[in-house]
Each structure stands twice: as structure tokens, then as C-alpha cells.
Hints:
By secondary structure, the chain is mainly beta. The protein is built from four helices and 18 strands. The strands form four sheets. The protein has a six-stranded antiparallel beta sheet, with helices on one face. A hairpin with a 2-residue loop joins strand 4 and strand 5 (about 40-45). The mean pLDDT is about 95.
Amino acid sequence: LDELFVSVLDTTMNVEPHVHREHVDSFFVLEGPFTFDRSGEEVTLEPGDYALAPPLLVHGFRPGGLALNVHAPGRFWVRTRMARREGRRLPPEEYDTYDPPADGGLPRSDAILCRADEGELLENEGRRIWILAARPELCVFLFDAVPGYVGPDPHLHRRHVDAFYVLNGALELELDGERIDAPTGTFAAAPPGVVHTFRAAGDERARFLNIHAPGMRFDEYFRRQAEGEEGREFHESFDAYEPG
């Protein structure tokens, strides 16, 4: 999608240090260890760890590990994949990937690094949410929900994508009126205008990533919800609308 590109990355080769000027590049580790180069410092990531390189931060990675790789906006990587399938090479500006700048780019402290079960936690009796990333390009949340947990009423977004990747357990998704079983390993995305919701299916806890691109300040949305804020005006101020 133009807003979001997601792939499962089997790191079988060195990816040398580089920068993106207009999009973020991030990794949720599924199988480790995964070696992330954060502006010249190699960091070993284990399953459940998350790392994000913002625009202009030099980064790369080494062979080993399996990660969910998320680019936002996704339009640059969409062009890259299409060109590769067609045997074409793109100039750097087309896929937004450049050699490290002479000034070294952003300091490594500007990277986001969350170890497993770290990050700001929002909790209620039915679920826990860890905020992994909160940026204009995307927000990434880790949910851990009790069996039978019911998500929000069916709703839509007009300006951003709402996506899910199931890590453990299962979800039942509703996308555009269709109910879809989503076991472990399932990825699904609701583009702008698609009515959607979810619930935790089965007899075990559901653990899943929830990705919003652009971010739409959804971290603040969840914080204010946790404080009890509701109402149509509140939801719509974060690009969440009732169907119809």
C-alpha cells in the first residue's frame, strides 16, 4: 500500500549502512538473534524486540534471524518490489535509499529500540497494549488480549491504514462485512474506507501487532481512551468514524 509496506524478512545477507530520507524502516524480531546496525553500533535483537530507524538515521543489518519489516510510507518499497520483479533498476530517489551522508546522519539516540515487553504500557481487565513506536509516519502497538476480548465497534479510517499481524493465538477479523479467521502468522490490513474490527478468538490469549500508517497520533488516542474519553467528536479527531 502507499501508506504501508510489510514483509517477513529472512536475513540471509548483509545490508550495508544506508539512509532513507522520507520514510521509516522498522523491524519486529520473530526469530533471533537479529543484528541491527544503528548508526555504526551493532545491536543484537531477540524475539519480541523492536527497532525503528527514522528518516536520515544510518542503519543496516547482518545475516541471521527473522523479522517483520515495516516501511512507512510504503510507496517507495512498492516501487522497488515492482521494479525488481520486472528486472529494472531504480534511481535512489525512486526508492528513497541513499548512501550514508557525509555528516553521519541523525545520532543513534534518535533510533527507537524496545526490548520485549518494554515500552509504555496501557492496561485494562481485557488487554494490555505496549506502545512500541509513535511517529507521524506510523504508530506500532503490541496487544495482549484475553480469550474472547472484543475490539471496538465496526469503524473505518479515512486517512490511514489499520493493520494486524498475529504473533500468538488467533483473531477473528471483520473486514468490509466479511468475517475472517486469523490464526498465528496472519497479516491483514484495512485500507482507508474499509469498515473493520476484531476479537480474540479461541481459548488462549491473543498477542498481535497493530500498525497505523500514518500514525495519526494513535498513541494519544489510546491514552485518552484509557482515561475514559469517548464520544463521536473524540473518535473522529483521530480519524475513526462510524460506518455510513
